[in-house]
Design goal:
This protein has about 270 residues and is of the alpha/beta class. The protein is built from eleven helices and ten strands. The chain folds into two domains: about 70 residues, Chemotaxis Receptor Methyltransferase Cher, domain 1, CATH 1.10.155; about 190 residues, Vaccinia Virus protein VP39 (Rossmann fold), CATH 3.40.50. The longest helix has 15 residues.
Length: about 270
C-alpha cells in the first residue's frame, strides 16, 4: 500500500470510528483491504478507498470500517466480571420489573449472550420476559453473525455444562453437526443495533450496568475521554461500567468511582 493511501485510510478511520492506526500497522491494513479489493473487483487500493468513500448509500464506508475493526471475543470472557455481576450487582437489581443492560461492544455476540445466560441463571425463567440486553457494535458483519447466534462447539468450552442443554440447541446432522444455536427465547432477550461510539446517540437511556470492554484500547486519550463521558451519561446514578482488564481509566479524566480493577461506578 502506498504511504499516502495508508495516511488517507488512517485519517479516515480516525475521523469516522475514532480508531487510531499507529505507524507499523501498514501491513495489517494492506492485508485486510486487499481482501476487500478482490471482493469488490477494485484494481488498486486507491480505487477501493475511492469507491468506499464515494458510495452514496454509505455501505462502502461501513465495509471499510468492518475490514479494519477487530472482533475477537469469547463466552464468559474475563470471568471476574461475571462473578461480580452475579454476586454484587444482580442481587440489587433482582426486584426490578424491567431490567435493561447495555453491551456497548458486542462484536460477534458472545458477550451479550453470556450476559443473558447469567441473567437467566441467577434470576430464573422470569428473566426472559423482563430483562433485555442492548447489544451494539460498529461492525455490521459482526452483528450479522451475532444475530444468527450459531457457534462451533469449541466456542462454549468456558460455559458450565448445564447451560449447554438449558440455553442452546445442538446441531444433529449435516451442516449443523458440531454447531450450537442460542435458543429463540434467549435470543429474544437481545436487541442488536449498529452504533458508533463516537457518534451522538439517537436516544438517551439510562442503564444500571454498561459493558464496554476491549474497545477503548484502539482509541487515543482524547477519544477515550469522549467515549467514557458518553457512557457515564448513560449510566444511572450508582450504575456500573465494566471495561477491559487492559483498559484502566487512570490516565484519563472522568467522574467515575473506582470499584476494583476494570470496574467503575457512577456516583449517586
Amino acid at each position: 500500500m502506498p504511504p499516502r493511501v495508508f495516511e488517507q485510510v488512517r485519517k479516515l478511520i480516525y475521523a469516522k470510528a475514532g480508531i487510531e492506526l499507529r505507524p507499523g500497522k501498514e501491513s495489517l491494513v494492506s492485508a485486510r483491504l486487499r481482501q476487500r479489493m478482490r471482493e469488490s473487483g477494485c484494481p488498486s487500493y486507491e480505487a477501493y478507498v475511492e469507491q468506499a468513500t464515494t458510495d452514496p448509500t454509505g455501505d462502502g464506508l461501513l465495509d471499510l470500517i468492518d475490514a479494519l475493526t477487530t472482533n475477537y471475543t469469547s463466552f464468559l470472557r474475563e470471568p471476574a466480571h461475571f462473578e461480580f455481576f452475579r454476586s454484587r450487582i444482580l442481587p440489587d437489581l433482582a426486584a426490578r420489573a424491567k431490567l435493561e443492560i447495555w453491551c456497548a461492544a458486542a462484536a460477534t455476540g458472545e458477550e451479550p449472550y453470556s450476559i443473558a445466560f447469567t441473567l437467566l441463571d441467577v434470576l430464573g425463567a422470569s428473566a426472559a420476559a423482563r430483562c433485555r440486553v442492548l447489544a451494539t457494535d460498529i461492525s455490521t458483519r459482526a452483528l450479522d453473525q451475532a444475530r444468527r447466534g450459531v457457534y462451533p462447539q469449541e466456542r462454549f468450552a468456558a460455559l458450565p455444562r448445564p447451560w449447554l442443554h438449558r440455553y442452546l440447541l445442538k446441531g444433529a446432522a449435516g451442516d449443523s453437526q458440531g454447531l450450537y444455536k442460542v435458543q429463540p427465547e434467549v435470543a429474544r432477550m437481545i436487541q442488536f443495533e449498529r452504533l458508533n461510539l463516537i457518534e451522538p446517540a439517537a436516544s438517551q437511556k439510562s442503564f444500571p450496568l454498561i459493558w464496554c470492554r476491549n474497545v477503548m484500547i484502539y482509541f487515543d486519550r482524547m477519544t477515550q475521554e469522549r467515549v467514557v463521558e458518553r457512557l457515564t451519561s448513560s449510566l444511572e446514578p450508582g450504575g456500573y461500567l465494566f471495561v477491559g482488564h487492559s483498559e484502566s481509566l487512570s490516565a484519563i479524566r472522568h467522574s467515575l468511582q473506582f470499584v476494583q480493577p476494570a470496574v467503575y461506578r457512577r456516583p449517586g
